[in-house]
C-alpha cells in the first residue's frame, strides 16, 4: 500500500528528507519485530528527532488518514511492532539520548529510543543500577519496554518496568502532548494516565520521553543452581529461600534445556547429577551470615529431599556461567523453531497448572519435545514446544495452534494470563478474552477511543476495532 | 434533599431494611470525612454486604438518578468522601472480611472495608508485613487507601498503596463487575485498569474487593534522629545515608514541631541541643556491620557540619518514642486549627521550594507559625499553618486561602503536585490545573465518561463535570 505523494512529502517536510525511507530493505527491516509470522508491508519508515516532530507526524496521520506503528528495538515477541498493512512506521532510533541525570532523585531522563543496556550502563557509571533486565537488553529500547511493561529476570525483587517509570511525555493518538506524573514519587491528583500508557503497546499514543528511577547497585550477588527431583520440589525450594533471604532472582528450567544449552554453548553442566528440574536463585550476601544462611537452607532442602544436588558460584565467572544455563535457552532453542507461549498464573497454582499443560501436550503430541523455563518466583512460565526435525514448519505451527486453545482454556481455568510479559500485539489478540472478560475488553476499546478516536495508533494490536 | 420513597424502598430491598439509615445522627456521621469544611447532607446511608448488593445499588443509582459517595474509614483530608449534596453514601463497614490468604504468593484477599491495621495485624500473625502505614491506620479502610493511593511513612522503601495491589474487584459507574488483573505479578494483556481505579477517589466506580501483596517482616529496625543546622543539611544527610544503607523511612520535622509535641505528649526531646530541623531515619540492621556503617555515616555528617547532634534508639521503647516525635505532630497541632497543605516536588527541588514557600508565608503573614514536616525521602512536604489564638477561624482560613494561590503557583513553578498523598476530593479541585494541564484534565473527564456515563459516582470530586 503506497502513501499519496503529498503525504510522503509532508512527512519529509516534518522530519527531513533523509529521515523518511521507502526502500525495500528499510521497509523489510523496520516493518517487523522478532516474530517472523507476518510479512512486513509498511508504506514508509520515518525517524523523528524531537517530540514536536512526533506530534506533527501523529497530527498528519489524523489528517491524511494513515496508520502509525511505533518501532523501538523490534525485539518484541507478539508482533506488537509489526507493520503488515501499509502503516507508517515511526522509529525512535534517533531519539536515543539520555538527557538528564538527577542524582538526588536517582532519576534519569531519557528519550524513548534509548537502548536498555545503554541505560543499564549509564546507571552503573553513576554508581547506580537499572534493574529491569532480559535477554534482549542489548537491542530493546525503553519506549518499547514501557509500551509492553517489560519484565525479565529480576522481577521477583524489582518488579516490572512499570515500577521504574517516574514520568512520561507522550503524544496521544489525537496529537496532544501530555506530561504524565512529572517525575514525582507521590502525586495524588486524579487518574494516573502514566500507568495507562505503560503496557498499552502504542495503541493510545507514543511514548517519546521518560524519566526512569534507578536503584542502588546490588552488592555481592551470589548465584546457586539446585537440582530437584520433581516440579513441586522447586516450589518448596522457592518458599524456603524466600522466607529467609531477599531473592533477586528465582528461575527454573528443565533437564532438556540443560542438555541443549550445554551442548550448544559448551559450558559445563552445573553438577554431575542430572535432575528433572533446576532452580537458579540469586541473592545479595550483605553479610557472611547471609551466605551461611543460604547454605543452611540448601542443606535443609537436601534433607527434605527437595534438592538432589547443587552448586554455589565461587567466582564471578562461575556465577555468569550458571546464569547462562538459564539465559542462553532462547538462543539455543531458536534453531528448533520453538512454538512459544509466555503464560502466568498465581504462584500457588503453578504446580497443578504445569501438570495440566504437560498432560495436554503429552496426550496430543507425544512426539513433541517441550522445554519449560521461566520466572517461577513471579508465576511466569515460558512453554516452548520444539519442532520435530522431520515435520514441516507449517504443519508444526498448525498442530501447535490446535493445542493452543486447550492451553489457553487451561490458563483460563487457573485464572491466569495468556501473555505474562510479551504483550498481546497480534499473536495473542485472538486469545485476549481468555484473560480479560468481554465486558472488560469493551472498556479497553472505549479508552482507546478517548485517546485515539480516529484509530491511527497501532491499529489491530491488542484488539480489533469494534 | 430527600430520596423518593420508592427509591428508598428499593435500597432497602437490596441491602435489607436495617442496612439503610436516614436518621440525622447517621447522616451526620457517615456524610463526612476528617475535613470539617463542609456540612454533611446525604439523603441516606446504605451498608451493602456483598458485591452483588453494591452492583444493585449502582444500577439503581443509574436508573433512579441519584449520586453515590463511597465511604470507608472517613479519614480523608480532601473531602473525597463528603456527601454534601443529597448523595447516597455507600459504606463498606460491613464488607470488612479478610477472605483468603495465599501463602505461596504472600497474597491476601480482602473486602474493601477491611481496616488498614486489621490487615497489618493479619500480616504479622502470618509472619509477614503490610508496609503501607500512616497515622490513621487504625480507622482507614483499604478501599479508601486504594481510592486515594495512600502513601505514608514507609514509601521510601515500599512505595505507595499502588505497589501492593495485585488485583481488584470493582463495580463500575455503569454497574459492571470487573475483575482487574486477577492477582498476577505479570500480566501483559492490554491496559491495566487496576491502576486507573487506584487513586480515582471513587469517581469511576467502587472498589469492592482487593488482593493485597504482603512482604517479609522487617528485621531489627533501627531508628535515628539527627539535628541539623539548616534545611539543606537534611538533604545531605539523606543522600549520605541513602547511598550506603537501604532506608525504610526518612522523615523530617522542624524545631517548632518538637517543642509542640514534647509539650503535648510529655515525651523527652531527642537530645539536649535544639536545632532548626530534624531528620528521622530508619533502616534494617541486617548485620552488625550495617549498624557500624550507620554510626560511621553519622560521624561523617557531624564532621561535615550537617549534623549537630543525634541519637540512635537503644531499645524498642526509645525507638517508639523517637517515632512519636514525628507521628504525633498531626494530633498535637490539631487544636491550633492548622491549615494543611500536602505538596510534593522532585527531591532535588525540595530545598529551593521550601525556601520560596517560607518567604511567601513569612512576607504575607509574619505572625503565622508554620510547622513543616514530611516524607522528605519522597519529596513530600506537609505545610501546616497554625491559627494565631486571637484570630477568628473564618478570618484565618480566608487569609490562608489567599496565600494558597501563591503556594500553588510555586508548586507549579517547581513542576510539583498540589496533592502528594491526600487526593483531590473537593478541597484541591480548584487547584488541579496547577499540576495537571487543562488538556490532560479533558482526558480525565473523557475517561470518567467511559466508566460512569451518567455521572453517578462521587460527582464533583477531583473535577466538576464538563
From TrEMBL, chains A, B:
Alphabetical UniProt keywords: FAD, Flavoprotein, Metal-binding, Oxidoreductase, Zinc
Stretches assigned to the FAD-binding PCMH-type domain: 38-217
PROSITE patterns attached to this UniProt entry: FAD_PCMH
Entries under SUPFAM superfamilies matching the protein: FAD-binding/transporter-associated domain-like (SSF56176), FAD-linked oxidases, C-terminal domain (SSF55103)
Alphabetized Pfam families for the sequence: FAD-oxidase_C, FAD_binding_4
Gene Ontology terms, MF aspect: (R)-2-hydroxyglutarate dehydrogenase activity; FAD binding; metal ion binding
E.C. number(s) listed in UniProt: 1.1.99.39
Biological process annotations from GO: respiratory electron transport chain
Reactions catalysed according to its record: (R)-2-hydroxyglutarate + A = 2-oxoglutarate + AH2
Reported cofactor(s): FAD
Enzyme class: oxidoreductase
Family per similarity comment: Belongs to the FAD-binding oxidoreductase/transferase type 4 family.
PANTHER family assigned: D-2-HYDROXYGLUTARATE DEHYDROGENASE, MITOCHONDRIAL
Subunit relationships: Homodimer.
Protein name: D-2-hydroxyglutarate dehydrogenase
Organism whose genome encodes this protein: Paraperlucidibaca baekdonensis
Lineage: Bacteria, Pseudomonadati, Pseudomonadota, Gammaproteobacteria, Moraxellales
Amino acid at each position: 500500500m503506497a502513501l499519496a505523494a503529498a503525504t510522503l512529502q509532508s512527512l519529509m517536510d516534518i522530519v527531513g528528507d533523509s529521515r523518511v525511507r521507502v526502500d525495500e530493505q528499510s521497509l523489510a527491516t523496520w516493518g517487523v519485530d522478532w516474530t517472523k509470522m507476518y510479512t512486513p508491508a509498511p508504506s514508509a519508515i520515518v525517524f523523528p528527532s524531537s517530540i514536536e516532530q512526533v506530534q506533527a507526524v501523529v497530527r498528519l496521520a489524523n489528517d491524511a488518514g494513515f496508520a502509525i506503528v511505533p518501532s523501538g528495538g523490534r525485539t518484541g515477541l507478539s508482533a506488537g511492532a509489526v507493520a503488515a498493512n501499509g502503516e507508517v512506521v515511526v522509529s525512535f532510533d534517533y531519539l536515543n539520548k539520555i538527557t538528564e541525570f538527577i542524582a538526588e532523585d536517582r532519576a534519569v531522563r531519557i528519550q524513548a529510543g534509548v537502548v536498555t543496556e545503554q541505560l543499564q550502563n549509564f546507571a552503573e557509571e553513576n554508581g547506580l543500577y537499572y534493574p529491569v533486565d532480559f535477554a534482549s537488553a542489548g537491542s530493546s529500547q525503553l519506549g518499547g519496554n514501557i509500551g509492553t511493561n517489560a519484565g525479565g529476570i529480576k522481577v521477583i525483587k524489582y518488579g516490572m518496568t512499570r515500577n521504574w517509570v517516574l514520568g512520561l511525555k507522550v503524544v496521544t493518538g489525537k496529537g496532544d502532548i501530555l506530561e504524565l506524573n512529572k517525575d514525582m514519587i507521590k502525586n495524588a491528583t486524579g487518574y494516573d494516565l502514566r500507568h495507562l500508557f505503560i503496557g498499552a503497546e502504542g495503541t493510545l499514543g507514543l511514548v517519546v520521553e521518560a524519566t526512569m528511577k534507578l536503584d542502588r547497585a546490588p552488592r555481592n550477588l551470589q548465584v546457586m543452581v539446585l537440582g530437584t527431583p520433581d516440579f513441586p520440589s522447586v516450589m518448596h525450594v522457592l518458599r524456603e529461600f524466600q522466607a529467609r533471604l531477599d531473592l533477586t532472582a528465582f528461575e527454573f528450567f528443565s533437564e532438556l534445556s540443560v542438555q541443549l544449552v550445554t551442548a550448544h554453548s559448551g559450558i559445563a553442566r552445573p553438577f554431575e547429577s542430572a535432575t528433572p528440574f533446576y532452580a537458579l536463585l540469586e541473592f545479595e550476601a550483605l553479610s557472611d551470615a547471609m551466605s551461611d544462611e543460604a547454605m543452611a537452607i540448601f542443606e535443609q532442602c537436601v534433607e527434605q529431599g527437595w534438592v538432589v544436588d547443587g552448586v554455589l558460584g565461587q567466582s564471578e565467572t562461575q556465577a555468569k556461567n550458571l546464569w547462562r544455563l538459564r539465559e542462553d535457552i532462547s538462543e539455543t532453542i531458536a534453531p528448533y523453531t520453538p512454538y512459544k507461549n509466555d503464560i502466568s498464573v498465581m504462584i500457588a497454582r503453578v504446580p497443578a497448572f504445569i501438570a495440566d499443560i504437560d498432560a495436554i501436550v503429552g496426550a496430543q503430541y507425544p512426539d513433541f519435545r517441550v522445554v519449560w523455563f521461566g520466572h517461577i518466583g513471579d508465576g511466569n512460565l515460558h512453554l516452548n514446544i520444539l519442532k520435530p526435525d522431520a515435520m514441516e514448519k507449517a504443519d508444526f505451527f498448525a498442530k501447535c495452534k490446535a493445542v493452543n486453545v486447550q492451553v489457553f482454556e487451561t490458563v483460563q481455568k487457573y485464572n491466569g494470563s495468556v501473555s505474562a510479559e510479551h504483550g498481546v500485539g497480534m499473536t495473542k489478540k485472538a486469545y485476549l478474552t481468555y484473560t480479560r472478560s468481554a465486558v472488560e475488553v469493551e472498556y479497553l476499546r472505549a479508552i482507546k477511543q478517548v485517546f485515539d478516536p480516529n484509530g491511527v495508533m497501532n491499529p489491530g494490536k491488542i484488539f480489533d476495532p469494534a
